[in-house]
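> example.struct
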């Protein structure tokens, strides 16, 4: 049975593109990265997601305090906008807007320079930059598809 090009590009259920800038961000803990990817996975078409803190804690096996610290860390890094609770009392959870990075090189750490970086080390850094650009283009293509 022949497959179409679209079927070959389709990812298995449960897979999401992970922005390298989030994964490599030294200001984020591993739990904050997991939480970002979880919210990215739960979001709708308009970058909105609204799981309760209890749901986040249950799904990620983390404490309420850890979830709140990670949410605050993501907010400080401008990767998450916490809109707040809807008016209506009990049973309403926070509304989050997840920042999907369009410009992948926006928060990239600076490349090392100086007397110890030269020759093959500089070439390796250039190759890594090129690979990161290719990955960013692939992520954008997946997001556009």
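> example.seq
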């Amino acid at each position: 049975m022949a497959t179409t090009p679209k079927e070959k590009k389709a990812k298995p259920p449960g897979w999401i593109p992970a922005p390298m800038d989030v994964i490599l961000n030294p200001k984020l803990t591993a739990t904050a990265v997991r939480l970002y990817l979880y919210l990215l996975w739960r979001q709708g078409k308009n970058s909105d997601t609204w799981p309760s803190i209890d749901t986040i804690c249950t799904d990620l096996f983390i404490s309420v305090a850890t979830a709140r610290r990670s949410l605050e860390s993501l907010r400080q890094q401008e990767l998450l906008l916490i809109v707040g609770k809807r008016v209506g009392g009990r049973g309403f959870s926070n509304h989050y807007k997840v920042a999907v990075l369009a410009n992948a090189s926006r928060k990239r750490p600076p490349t090392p320079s100086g007397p110890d970086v030269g020759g093959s080390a500089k070439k390796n850094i250039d190759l890594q930059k090129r690979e990161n650009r290719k990955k960013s283009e692939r992520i954008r293509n997946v997001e556009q598809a």
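> remarks
The longest strand covers residues 80-85.
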